[in-house]
Amino acid sequence: MAIDAELRQENLANSPVGKLRTFYKKLSELPVVWVSILLVVLVIPAIFAPIIAPHDPYEGDIANRLDVPVWYEGGSWDHILGTDRQGRDLLSRLIYGSRIAMFVSMTALLVSASIGTTLGLLSGWYGGWIDHVIQRLVDIKSSIPAILLALIFVSIFGPSIFIAISIIAIFLWNRYTRLIRAETLSLRNQDFIARARVNGASTPRIILKHILPNVGNTLIVLATLEVGTVIILESTLSFLGVGIPRPIPAWGVMVSDGRNYLAVAWWIAILPGVGIFLTVLSLNLFGDWLRDHLDPKLRQVRRS
Amino acid sequence: MQRYIIIRLFHGVIAFFGVTIIVFSLVRLTGDPLDSLLGEEDDEETYQYILELWELDKPIHTQYFTYMGNILHGELGPSFSFDATAVELIKKRMPATLLLGGISTAIAFPLSLMLGVFTAVKRDTIFDYGGKSIAVMGQATPDFWIAIILIWVFAVTLGWLPTSGRGGILHLVMPVTVLALPSAGTLRLMRSAMLNQLDSEYVKLARIKGVPEWKIIWKHAFRNASIVPITFASVVISSLVTGSIVVETIFAWPGMGQLAIQAINARDYHVVQALALMGSSMLIIMHIVTDIAYVYADPRIRYTKMQS
Questions:
Q1: Whole-prediction pTM
Q2: Would you call the peptide bond into A247 cis, given omega within 30 degrees of 0 as the criterion?
Q3: Among residues A81, A82, A243, which one has the least CA distance to residue B264?
């Protein structure tokens, strides 16, 4: 059986598919690609937006409405990617859009991870009725689709960045709860926890000093993998008009703005989507890499 | 078994009450509920009607009982932007949404199962890697952007398909495609379930006995991997709710999803509330059904669920 598998491996390595696979493997072992895409598309524009952006993202120039990008005839270097129907510079709006994407996803992530982790720790540590109540909360949460929740919130409060972040945070905490609860359950009965208790450590101390550090890696990996979900959700809500309100240059809003100009100016609607796609793709692949490398079992092997 | 079903139903009822409490309190605990419940140019008559319908002058717990009573009687309030009640509107819009959802599920369901089996059988070939790459890219692409690209390519540039609206079969192509895409994720589920089965001892034994490969795939492995269609159902229902709002808005399809966005633009609270309650009840029922179906389909799950 072992020889069989080896032969299979060898045959594979020499076939074109095998070469493709080794190439793919090497590529996925190098997060450099994904990290650099992330830096170029998301992080650097987000931090340095006022320096990089050639124009104000809100100020329109009515004389230059629907300008074409520089590679078309009539395009100018002043508006490299052209302008939208209000004469606002598309590149500048895209750059500020990455700022919005990063701000919203970081805040929403922080809130949902804190809520989810706290509930997961409580639920796993105490069990009993606390666990039951928290499980029912998870049930209730998974019974309302994010979009419908957003609709209710927006119909009462109107759209705003704060509401958008709240909706996303409320919507994404349950995954942390489920994972952290499971890990806490398995940690709770281990010897080092019993010893800490014999030494007189209080319950809050055990949870914060002994359980929390042990679920840290899981938390980091899950959070990284969730950023993509947050960005997709935020852009979908914004596209539908129940997320980030106009005229803030969120990528989803920009796609929606360009919808009616596909025949004359396709770039207005298509390019912001490229931003979303590249960001989420590289985040997901970076998250996969992180998961493979932060796996607690792997780490223990390396230590011994 | 019966005990499990009863407990599960009970949990479903709790979830429904939880949802109604959230919807109820969001309106009432934030300032004057009449601000959200009334349209901008409503007269004294409507004001009185709303006040009596939800008994807004009574204490909060009485209000909640009235509210629940109204909901259970199918009275969800009048629409401000359309000349009808919320329930009437939903009834009118439902067939269009069901048509779109039905067709896309009918196509996506068998297709993703077959492709899942196919990529599992053709493991480590170009098809398998192709499938994986498409799945990875699909996860990073928002539905609404795919819809916009389809319109740009097939309607605006090539002129093959109509941009929006309801009409012949051509009108269905793009909406159905976009709506069916999220369920393609199931093919990865099916693939890994099939791989598990194909690696197992009983499949090896069947191969040694000389059972033909197609029989191993369809009669042995596929039947044991059939828990996946159940998971598929629950994934699809929740993605259909989101998907139909996006798709109907973009393609101007006159269903409930489009109604939701029209209602939100007009701040038509009662319609939004009715749609939210309906979507949630649908999800709750679907979760109960899939949980019970799991237990029937797989004795091992039955055992662990009974324990807890």
A1: 0.85
A2: yes
A3: A243
